[in-house]
Amino acid sequence: MKTNELILLSRDCEAIQIPSGEKVMLPAGSRVTVTQSLGGSYTVTTDQGYLVRIANKDADAIGKEAEASQAERLAAAEGPADLEKLVWDQLKTCFDPEIPVNIVDLGLVYHCQVTPLPEGGNKVDVKFTLTAQGCGMGQVLKGDMESKILSLSGVKDVGVEVVFDPPWHPSMMSEAARLQLGFM
After folding, report:
1. What is the largest CA-CA distance in the chain?
2. pTM exceeds cut of 0.90
3. What whole-number distance in Å separates Cα of residue 138 and Cα of residue 72?
4. How does pLDDT run across 52-84, given as a tens digit for each residue?
5. Which of 127, 157, 177, 183 registers the highest number of CB atoms within 10 A of its CB?
6. Distance of CA 79 to the CA centre of its chain
């Protein structure tokens, strides 16, 4: 998708204000400019200058087709080790709406563990942090991770926790992320 593309919303559309994480309703006919399209969501700027995130399920409101989920494109896991790799792949489809780098390469994911459940299936536990403690997008990112992980075959339960120890620092980014964001 082209960025900085001016679009008129074809219908009322729920969005999440960045960085507060508050839900807002954008009325049909509103003019928005797409600034980022990654991980199945769209970051747009409104005529009033607000930065908001539009979910993949509402792509039609901006004239786009919803993307197939990463889980739909992935094969079933053979066991916990394979499933953990698939979970990491899913996490790489989660993006901070202000930063064009996935949360894994940003260094925001501190822990990922797959545990087989006695009744069958698996539980996935993830610990992640935010680039700033006051960021209101934490619950939005948490929900995004939970839904993407739960969409994987074999996952029956997910626990995603926001942690702040150790505090995030740009040195935690992958080399590719630092290069992409101009830190190198």
Report:
1. 53
2. no
3. 25
4. 999 989 999 999 887 765 555 454 556 667 899
5. 177
6. 25
CB 45 within 8 A of CB 32: yes
Q: Is 96 exposed, middle or buried (0-12, 13-18, 19+ CB in 10 A)?
A: buried
27-31: long-range pairs with CB below 8 Å, 24+: 31/6, 31/7
Is residue 1 pLDDT above 50, yes or no? no
Cα distances (Å, whole numbers) of residue 60 to 50, 54, 167:
20, 10, 38
157 within 8 A of 121, measured Cβ to Cβ: yes
**Does residue 3 carry a pLDDT above 90?**
no
Vertex 77, ends 105 and 128: CA angle to 5°?
30
